Amino acid sequence: MSHENSPAPLAGCIAVVTGASRGAGRGIALELGAAGATVVVTGRSTRGQAAPGYDGILALSGQSQLPGDIDSTAEAVTAAGGRGIAIACDHGDEAQVQALFERVLGEHGRIDLLVNNAWGGHQSFDGVFDAPFWQHPLAHWDSMLQHGVRHHLLASREAAPAMVAQGRGLIVTTTFHDRGHYLRGNLYYDLAKAAMTRLALGMAEELRPHGVASIALSPGWMRTEFVLQGHRTDEAHWTERPELTRTESPRYLGRAVAALAADPQVLDWSGQVLLVADLAQRYGFTDVDGRQPPAFTLDAPAGR
Question: In the chain, how many domains are there?
Answer without folding.
Answer: 1
